[in-house]
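Model the whole thing, not chain by chain.
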Amino acid sequence: MGYTIPIGPYHPSLEEPVYAKLYTEGEIIKDADVYIGYNHRGVEKLATEKNFIQTLALVERVCGICSHSHPFAYCLAIENIAGMEVPKRGQYIRVITAELERLHSHFLWLGVAAHIIGFDSVFMFAFNAREKVMDALEILSGNRVNYGMNIIGGVRRDIDTGKKEAINKAIDDLWDANDSLKNIFLKDKTAAMRTKGIGIIKKEDALKLGIVGPHMRASGIEYDVRVNDAYSCYEDFDFNISTYPEGDVFSRIVVRILENYESIKIIRQALEKLPEGSINLGIKIPKVPAGEFVSRVEAPRGQVVYYVVTDGGPKNYRVSIHVPTFRNAASVPFMLKGNSVADASLIIACIDPCFSCLDR
Amino acid sequence: MHKADFTEITKDKILDIASEKNRSGCPIVVIAGYIDTEGRPVVSYSYDVMGQIETYKCIDEKVLPSITKVYGTAAEWFEEEISELMGVEFEGLDSKKRLFLPEEFDGTGQILVSPLSKLKKN
């Protein structure tokens, strides 16, 4: 017997609004639709009313977790239009913040995944690790969520020896925490039963669906903006693109755990090689000529793309923001098909969605 | 980091370029749109060509061919978004439902759950 089961729009698997309609036959999902648009805040329109400095504060609030990636991508666009060259030390500090943000996001998602499969002790363990990342971000920027690090032409805050030692200590602890999470997820039978063979996207389907980030890399595609279109100073660091071939929820867990190690490696290298010099260009009110640029950064969930158009005036003419969830959410109906209703919330959550970002 | 690379094209070139990029294995980065200072719709297609972003802009066209037949789902939501928010129609776009806007929205006025005119003071 077939049923249409509505999930959401409030709290379908995480505290963000999305509505999924599942068309089922017995326990099995035969088809699904995903509805978005419940959290529109008019950020793109607001950005055309603001000057370049005000826009930084605005785009930082598109997402609470990727709050460094958004101003980072926006700054790259404006700096490219204006022909600015950010000092190397500023670029390194941007990368350190971006990688701490990735750790923050991945530990949070690993905790959420554990919570959904009913493994709450791992949820608490992952969130404890996430607290350590937030402590490190607080040491670095003075803030735990919206870091306020980016300005046009560099960053706001420098890293001194004390901060360097504290961040190094924090990432050493995080390496151990990641080891523990890896052991649990790879060896625990219950975790494997709930995640292996669920929500599969094979490599060829991933290409057709246009998914991005760890979600794509978990389908065996070796693509990362940090490597394929290295921005800022990512070419200075030695790190690997983490992939896993199976394309199921388990693969997405493995890829994120592996990416945590790579992020820690990048932070260690950046702290060790941190160049001397200024951290920004000292520009208070940037003069930006008319122009346009498509910038992108590899945010924790995938590539964030900013299409910025300026007209030579003090404000943006157009800021078009496209976040990874915009690409990945379109793959949810495909992943749901053929799976059981009990796995629906885990499948929706496995893209690490951010529907507030998506609606922006 | 890639350099800015923008090319203006006519709408008859859109499908040819999309097919060529897809054959070469170039993923689509973004399809974005805006209304320019002269009130004309601008739709831009950005592709990742070996790490370099190539952007093709089509200006002042209200009807464009859909590239979903080439790029599939990867291009679908981009086109639906532009269609809903800018009123540009995509020929061949198989859209069953609205993406962002409520189904009952007729394209005029504001979208309010509780219209201000119906709010009463106690």
